[in-house]
Amino acid sequence: MPVLEEIKEALMAGNANKVREAVTRAVEEGVPPGTIINDGLIAAMNIIGVKFKNNEVYVPEVLVAARAMHAGMDVVKPLLTGDALQEKGTMVIGTVKGDLHDIGKNLVIMMMEGAGFKMIDLGIDVPPEKFIQAVEEYKPQVVGLSALLTSTMMQMKKTVEALAPYRHAIKVIVGGAPVTQKFAEEIGADGYAPDAASAVDKVKELLGLA
Amino acid sequence: MLIVGELINSSRRPIAEAIAARDKAYLQELAVKQVEAGAHIIDVNCGTSLAQEAAVMAWLVDIVQEVVDVPLCIDTPSPAAMEAGLAHHKGKAMINSITAERTRWEEVLPLVQRYKPSVIALLMDDGGMPATVEDRLRVAGRLVPALVDAGVPEEDIYLDPLVKPLGVGSTCGVEVLESTRILRQKYPQVHLICGLSNISYGLPERRLLNRAFMVMCLSVGMDAFILDPLDRPLMSLLAAAKAVAGKDDYCLEYIAAARAGKLVV
């Protein structure tokens, strides 16, 4: 089996050791690091994303796949020079103030990283000021807001309002169990995604990368 | 054993729509069905009403109490919505919830003292969701005496150890079981409650995991559950598990349920 196929297969099986080993071998065989990342690690993570969206794989399987991806990245990242690693963009993400849920947000982070984006994770219970601070500091193209509680959807609205001065430069995408397309439109977000894999599609669409 | 029927919760999309449309008949029917299926308390949550939450909560309490005699569980983190629900509630209500988070405690406690409901107390403080058994015991060690000092009888306190999904941590179930076992010994008069469905988030055949978790919780001293009473296999298993755990004298409730045709195998 070609080594890239081996990497993909091991990643999809969530086997971190095998991914590390196969990536190391690919490097020794002279496969360019960018190719290993894009055609191996990211390609496999994309497949996991689609399967997750279709309910063919479950949350723990996404977690072990992401762990395997990181194991591979750790091997290959030090070999990248300068702009060899072309990040598709930067996204700031957090769970809004008053809400302590992080599973959905973390899945989005994994899928977005898997798709080649640089992710700035602000964590949980994030007040609007902290989102603004991060926007100033990291100059992202996208800001993602997560809320799992019906009671914190109002905070989502407040955060979107607080980001108004930056909207010429950033897209705002929202998600979480109680969130709907309609709600996203009502509060003036640019996009809504019902799951982590769809979030990747939505962000690419908003940035014109689709 | 106390069953709180969980279905009237606006984080479920059909309910959010029914509440938005003020679909009284649909919501009333759902309340009646849950009581008929064995719920002792009906949970009401309308968080998706956002700015109108307090007014909608008052309406929801009114229309549900029109058709059922059991108490309602006013389920909201908003003190304003909780107060509106409690003010409209006839008889002794339940609230979901108070926590050891400073602001939440200060805002909700006066309502508890004024309306004297049963209280679901989540075992979390300003440090966030509990990560270990010790976190839960520490918060319980603050909440129980504080509630008792504030005049809440131990019998009215329902501690919720907070269930996190197995899908993101293989020990999330065990943490709750171990916490429950210790809390049961430490506070024999206090009730222990949890929602079942969190445990199975992100996994296939969720109801199977919910059922296994319910039986295991019951066996270590959990004596109240927030669940879907219309899940007949779950309710059947609960009847059987209660009998096996020695909480059904002479198995009379189990026999009665079988005779009434309520048990499915």
Question: Quick summary of this structure?
Answer:
The complex is a heterodimer of chains A (210) and B (265). Chain A has helices at 3-12, 16-28, 33-53, 59-76, 103-114, 128-138, 153-162, 181-186, 196-206; strands at residues 90-95, 118-121, 142-146, 171-175, 191-192. With 210 residues, chain A is of the alpha/beta class.
Instruction: Give the strand line-up of the largest sheet of chain A.
Output: 2-1-3-4-5
Strand content of chain A: 5-15%
What ranges of chain B have pLDDT less than 50 throughout 5 or more consecutive residues? none
Q: Which CATH-level-2 architecture of the largest domain in chain A?
A: 3-Layer(aba) Sandwich
Encode the helix/strand succession of chain B as letters. Answer: EHHEHEHEHEHEHEHEHH
CATH class of the largest domain in chain B: Alpha Beta
The N- to C-terminal Cα distance of chain A equals 30 Å
Structural class of chain B: alpha/beta
Q: Portion of residues in helices of chain A? A: 40-55%
The H-and-E topology of chain A, N to C, reads as: HHHHEHEHEHEHEH
CATH superfamily of the largest domain in chain B: Dihydropteroate synthase-like
What is the CATH class name of the largest domain in chain A?
A: Alpha Beta
Treating each run of at least 4 consecutive H or I residues as one helix, how many helices of chain A?
A: 9
Radius of gyration of chain B: 18 Å
Structural class by secondary-structure content of chain A: alpha/beta
Q: Helical content of chain B, roughly?
A: 40-55%
Q: What number of domains of chain A?
A: 2
- Tell me the distance between the termini of chain B: 21 Å
The major beta sheet of chain A can be summarized as:
5 strands, parallel
Commentary on this structure:
- The complex is a heterodimer of chains A (210) and B (265).
- Chain A is α/β, with parallel strands linked by helices and 210 residues long.
- Chain A has 2 domains: 3-83, Orthogonal Bundle (Methyltransferase, Methionine Synthase (B12-binding Domains), Chain A, domain 1), CATH 1.10.1240; 90-206, Cobalamin-binding domain (Rossmann fold), CATH 3.40.50.
- Chain A has 9 helices and 5 strands; from the N terminus they run H-H-H-H-E-H-E-H-E-H-E-H-E-H.
- In chain A, strands 2-1-3-4-5 form a 5-stranded parallel sheet, sandwiched between helices.
- The model of chain A has no long low-confidence stretch (mean pLDDT 90).
- With 265 residues, chain B is an alpha/beta fold.
- Chain B is built from 10 helices and 8 strands.
- Chain B has helices at residues 13-20, 24-36, 53-67, 79-88, 102-115, 133-149, 172-186, 206-219, 232-244, 252-259, and strands at residues 2-5, 41-44, 72-75, 94-98, 118-122, 157-160, 191-195, 224-227.
- The model of chain B has no long low-confidence stretch (mean pLDDT 95).
- Chains A and B meet through helix 4 and helix 7 of A and loops of B.
